[in-house]
Write a structure and sequence with these properties.
Elements (H helix, E strand, L loop, with lengths): L7 E4 L10 E4 L15 E6 L7 H14 L3 E5 H4 L2 H4 L5 H4 L3 E3 L12 E6 L1 H9 L8 E5 L14 H9 L5 E4 L2 E7 L4 H7 L1 E3 L2 E3 L7 E7 L2 E5 L7 E7 L2 E14 L7 H4 L11 E9 L7 E4 L4 E5 L7 E5 L2 E6 L4 E6 L4 E4 L4 H12 L13 H8 L2
Parallel strand pairs: 3-4, 3-6, 4-5, 6-7
Antiparallel strand pairs: 1-2, 8-22, 9-12, 9-21, 10-11, 13-15, 13-19, 14-15, 14-18, 15-16, 16-17, 18-21, 19-20
Family: Belongs to the NAD kinase family.
InterPro entries: ATP-NAD_kinase_N, ATP-NAD_kinase_PpnK-typ_C, NAD/diacylglycerol_kinase_sf, NADK
EC number: 2.7.1.23
Length: about 375
């Protein structure tokens, strides 16, 4: 499968004057799933602690192992569910599974594609398991919202077969590459690893700055946490200070995330094929602070303002929440590893169907048309 998407080409054309450039934008419908060789392994992700998914999960696994003869990977904690562990009829299928543990086992080079059973959270979780290239993801709507899960499970056999045969369209959902640099340490740790001079802790040169990296599909949220004070953070774009956010916080989202928390905070909704990053304030203390869209590929950096009264907190797709202190920094840019999401029909129709069905976008009661008598009465005025 092709791992990258060409956003546009810059080409010369014989009918265009010399030194003139023509921009060619790729048709989203041309993104098709292609296999270099038939897929042999599949990762099945099931929403944990949801009894309603047990039957679909077992039916899918039986189909994949016995009818499609595929290697099925399942997270170890899924099989620890008593309803699965104690099911003797499911035992022969379960013995054929390959298991893994999050944050312990690397399966990035062993999976051909992913099937998610649940809501949008399962797709976000699948994204978090792969910090580099992500296999194509087929998501079934078995959760509460289903904006990112276009497939219905009723005829899963036919749909899964089409994907295995390469008969499907793709939408490449961009991710954010995030790096958190931690410089803050408490006094006890600082005394152990640094030098105290005139009551001030001087960081030891031998101790490196702690850096953590994340791949984010929806959004990075920086907020004030439990503090009663407004958050006060500086936002830099390619090294230049563009604004200071004073309010409840700020959301940095992908186009996929523009229909999530950012939409609730007043942002516009962006199709996932649009290469962009959205910056949305959360309850800003300024009436003129509107959400903005910046080009994909720029580097954003968020830090506490020097005069901030309190720390801030950051989370990544709603996970890994942690405190941000003075001196810490959060660097954000577009990742080169998108999530290839398999479409039910195509990227455009799937997206608008989700807007209508899940968010009820522009749903209203229609006006009745005029009768002939009413049209005549209108014409008299």
């Amino acid at each position: 499968m092709k791992k990258t998407m060409k956003i546009f080409d810059r080409v010369k054309h014989k009918d265009i004057p010399k030194n003139t450039w023509k921009w060619h934008i790729q048709d989203p419908a041309s993104q098709l799933l292609t296999w270099n060789k038939p897929p042999k392994s599949v990762l099945v992700i099931k929403k944990i602690r949801d009894a309603s998914l047990l039957k679909p999960f077992k039916e899918l696994c039986v189909f994949l192992t016995e009818e499609k003869n595929m290697i099925v990977y399942v997270e170890k904690k899924v099989l620890e569910d008593p309803a699965i562990a104690n099911d003797e009829n499911f035992g022969p299928v379960k013995k054929r599974f390959c298991t893994f543990r999050e944050d312990y086992d690397d399966i990035s080079n062993q999976i051909d594609f992913i099937i998610c059973l649940g809501g949008d959270g399962t797709l976000l979780y699948a994204s978090s398991l792969f910090q580099d290239s992500v296999p194509p993801v087929m998501a079934f709507h078995l959760g509460s919202l289903g904006f990112l899960t276009p497939f219905n499970f009723d005829n899963f056999q036919t749909q899964v077969t089409q994907v295995i045969e390469g008969n499907a369209a793709l939408v490449l959902r961009s991710r954010l590459k995030v790096k958190v640099a931690k410089e803050h340490r408490d006094k006890k740790t600082a005394v152990q690893n640094g030098v105290e001079e005139n009551g001030l802790i001087v960081k030891s040169e031998k101790e490196p700055i702690k850096q953590t990296k994340y791949q984010v599909l929806n959004e990075v949220v920086v907020d004030r946490g439990p503090s009663s004070y407004l958050s006060n953070v500086d936002v830099f774009l390619d090294g230049h200070l563009i604004t200071t956010v004073q309010g409840d916080g700020v959301i940095v989202s992908t186009p996929t995330g523009s229909t999530a928390y950012a939409a609730a905070a007043g942002a516009s909704m962006i199709h996932p094929n649009v290469p962009a990053i959205m910056i949305t304030p959360i309850c800003p203390h300024s009436l003129s602070f509107r959400p903005i869209v910046v080009p994909a590929g720029v580097e954003l950096k968020i830090m506490l303002s020097p005069d901030a009264r309190n720390t801030a907190w950051v989370s990544f797709d709603g996970r890994k929440r942690q405190e941000v202190c003075h001196g810490d920094s959060i660097s954000i840019t577009t990742s080169c590893y998108p999530v290839p999401s398999i479409c039910f029909r195509d990227p455009v129709n799937d997206w608008f169907d989700s807007l209508a069905e899940c968010l009820h976008w522009n749903v209203r009661k229609k006006q009745n048309h005029f009768t002939e008598d009413e049209e005549e009465e209108e014409g008299d005025f």
